[in-house]
């Protein structure tokens, strides 16, 4: 009699649902645009939202408890180093924080991808997961861009001099914007990659963004429509 109860108590971990992850990602994008990076409290809130995204994706690791705890540990380390950077403004802490966040979002993309692209019928949850991966790609690249700028200052041309920005958090805010407009190939041109690593990352992201939407999401939606027609005919 205890086994069914045990299963039910862990059912929320066994059945990944991607709706809350997508909502957290959309909330992060809207919230970061409303926060002032000159305000310390706002910067802490922004870093907190990154960790909320990590927590909302926890169920995607249902197949590997070790990976789940490892990702959580790296996420806590990323949040802790970002806090320490706010206090000390040490460049090494900023780089460590961004590197940890980049590792976390890469792990989330892999975990969600395993659930989305496994065998089985295509349902709304899988499509939502595929859309979530698209948003996660934008965040991953934002941290990669930030790492490039921190390691090689002057890799990007900003609307205002980089020297007028806070060391790390303002860069994150700017690069979330730049990453999303590059992912969608919108490209307003107000932030421009200058160094070779920056240009390479921008080109790779633009190509990946177009191919992902055209091939992955469109294909999944098409398969879902086809499955519905087959079920209706039966």
UniProtKB/TrEMBL annotation:
Q: Which keywords does this Swiss-Prot/TrEMBL entry list?
A: Membrane, Transmembrane, Transmembrane helix
Give the highest taxon in the source lineage.
Bacteria
Q: Which Gene3D superfamilies has this protein been placed in?
A: 1.10.287.70
Designated name of the protein: Potassium channel domain-containing protein
Q: Where is the Potassium channel domain?
A: 160-221
Database matches in PROSITE patterns: PROKAR_LIPOPROTEIN
What Pfam families is this protein classified in? Ion_trans_2
Q: Where are the transmembrane segments?
A: 21-38, 44-61, 90-115, 127-148, 200-221
